[in-house]
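Much of the work behind modern protein science is quiet bookkeeping, done one molecule at a time. The protein below has been through that process, and both of its lines are reproduced in full.


***
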Amino acid sequence: MDGADGTPPQNTADLTAFVQNLLQQMQGRFQQMSDSIIGRIDEMGNRIDDLEKSIGELIQQAGVDEKDEKAAA
């Protein structure tokens, strides 16, 4: 294990500071990953909503086309 300046921690206080710094870095990285994942989930939700809307429009359009074909026959 290295201290902040690249040297091994020499005493308990150095080790404590090193571990606290390491944990803070890990917490920051996990927060970034969490934010990224949540953003991607939100984006996927929006895409799914758009897809459902498009499918609904296609179904409506197909229903209208079927009625037009039956009326013409």
Notes: The radius of gyration is 29 Å. The longest helix spans residues 12-72. The chain has a mean pLDDT of 87.
